[in-house]
Design a protein that fits this description.
It comes from Pseudonocardia thermophila. Keywords: ATP-binding, Nucleotide-binding. InterPro entries: ArsA/GET3_ATPase-like (IPR025723), ATPase_ArsA/GET3 (IPR016300), P-loop_NTPase (IPR027417). The chain is α/β, with parallel strands linked by helices. It has one domain: Rossmann fold (3-Layer(aba) Sandwich). The chain is built from 16 helices and eight strands. The chain has an eight-stranded mixed sheet with strand order 3-4-2-5-1-6-7-8, with helices on both faces. The protein is elongated and about 85 Å long.
């Protein structure tokens, strides 16, 4: 057996309190609690004195209710009952953010023509990578405004967490690709598209069908041409922001093989791209409640024939110890491959998070304020 891996604890409060930390990006695979983690971190930062805003992506309605808001919008709204700092919350509206970007870089007449085009309406709502790009566009807007001490970003629920980092370049590459450039040339450009790779292009815009497709696409590109320089510059600025010392990535995972495998891919990608990783938030862990091994608990339970309730409790404890040990093995495997990554274990909370107190509790657990006993491999 390999020696036990030493796991460095992640100091969340130090990260949130650091005035040089301006952006915290929570990322990871779907279903691991990124949105709740993001909101809880923003609540904790505000209650530690910072003016924080959380940008959420497609949150459950109960999260807005937990923040005391009837609904979340594309612009920040103040959350009451949090202090001494301030907490604001918002939800990405992908289409509206795209519209705002076009309006910022085009004359009113040109912007109206672009937004009325069927091709634009397709890519602004359903093109692969649009949501991820618009999340970063909105982040850029929040940073440029200079109003916030801390911006916490919940990344989109992509099929792969890596899509979030690839999206700005993918959108830029698509709009700067050969087929799009051919469409910007009248007449002969369209004929060239028909002759060269038309089927691939058609697949990318499959929601637009029939002979009108090329006409709409050509009109869109010609109208968008004056806007594209600003669009590309924003994508490049986004990447510079993500790499800056004021940004910190938190990879969120659950103690399950698939989630930790995705977390490992993401950690590797962040390292390869030179982006600042703060650590891993491991949600929904199951710490043991007493320093009693599973084998000992089961042995005692077998002897308690006259006390079925006590025996049942001991067997439940034994099952919990086994589950905690399994989670520790999975985490040890991750940290063995990524020894420099600090980890915050977050004990599971039963039920939905229904209010600010629930988010505060999650924040306390992320910050390590809840004891987290783990089983000893050498326990009898």
């Amino acid at each position: 057996m390999s020696p036990q891996t030493t796991i460095e604890p992640l100091d969340i409060d130090a990260l949130l309190d650091d005035p040089t930390t301006k952006v915290v990006v929570c990322c990871g695979s779907g279903g691991v609690g990124k949105t709740t983690t993001s909101a809880a971190l923003a609540v904790r930062a505000a209650e530690r004195g910072r003016r924080a805003v959380v940008l959420t992506i497609d949150p459950a309605r109960r999260l807005a209710q937990a923040l005391g808001l009837a609904r979340l919008a594309n612009e920040p709204r103040r959350v009451e009952g949090v202090g001494p700092g301030e907490l604001w919350a918002m939800m990405l509206d992908m289409r509206r953010t795209f519209d705002e970007m076009v309006q910022a870089h085009a004359t009113p007449e040109r912007a109206a023509a672009i937004m009325a085009n069927p091709f634009y309406q397709t890519i602004s709502t359903s093109f692969s990578g649009t949501q991820e790009y618009m999340a970063m566009e909105k982040l850029g807007q929040l940073v440029a405004g200079g109003e916030w001490d801390l911006i916490v970003v919940d990344t989109p629920p992509s099929r792969s967490a890596l899509d979030f980092l690839d999206a700005p370049q993918r959108m830029s590459t698509f709009l700067d690709g050969r087929m799009i450039r051919l469409l910007s040339a009248p007449g002969r450009g369209i004929m060239k598209v028909v002759g060269v790779g038309f089927s691939l292009f058609a697949k990318a815009v499959s929601t637009i069908i029939g002979g009108q497709m090329l006409t709409d696409a050509s009109a869109f590109v010609q109208a968008f041409e004056s806007v594209f320089g600003g669009f590309r510059e924003r994508a490049e600025a986004t990447y510079r922001l993500l790499r800056s010392p004021g940004t910190a990535f938190l990879v969120v995972a659950a103690p399950e093989p698939d989630a930790l495998r995705e977390a490992a891919y993401f950690v590797d990608r962040l390292s390869a791209d030179g982006m600042p990783l703060a650590g891993l938030v491991l949600n929904r862990t199951h710490p043991v409640l007493a320093d009693l091994s599973a084998a000992k608990a089961r042995a005692v339970a077998d002897e308690l024939r006259g006390s079925p309730l006590a025996a049942a409790v001991l067997r439940l404890h034994a099952d919990r110890v086994d589950l905690a040990a399994r989670e520790e093995r999975l985490l040890a495997r991750f940290t063995h491959a990524h020894p420099g990554v600090a980890v915050a274990r977050v004990p599971v909370v039963e039920g939905d998070i229904a209010d600010l107190d629930g988010l505060r509790e999650i924040g306390e657990r992320i910050a390590g304020q809840v004891p987290h006993l783990v089983p000893h491999a050498s326990s009898p």
